[in-house]
Design goal:
It is built from two helices and six strands. It is of the alpha+beta class. The protein is flat.
């Protein structure tokens, strides 16, 4: 996807940030969801990389994992995680 240069310019006044946005917009992933069907369903996961503008700069949304979790408690992370089966009661 090629973004309109005027849109990129409106996102940030920082030339480095504009380059980053353009690179993200034109990135072609090595794997797609269709490529991952060979992975067991209970091991599939995804994260969200949410970019937004605040104070004239591009920011990324991060979360802090609960300290009560067994895996990586209290760590800073991208939002997301393992996929869940919506038909299961535990979901």
């Amino acid at each position: 996807m090629i973004m309109d240069p005027d849109l990129i310019d409106s996102l940030s006044s920082n030339p480095d940030e504009r380059v980053i946005v353009q690179r993200i917009a034109t990135h072609k992933p090595a794997l797609t969801a269709e490529d991952c069907t060979g992975f067991p369903a209970n091991r599939r996961a995804a994260v969200l990389v949410l970019l937004f503008v605040r104070g004239g700069h591009i920011r990324v949304l991060l979360t802090t994992r609960s300290k009560s979790l067994r895996s990586h408690p209290g760590q800073v992370a991208l939002p997301g995680g393992r996929s869940v089966n919506p038909t299961k009661k535990s979901a």
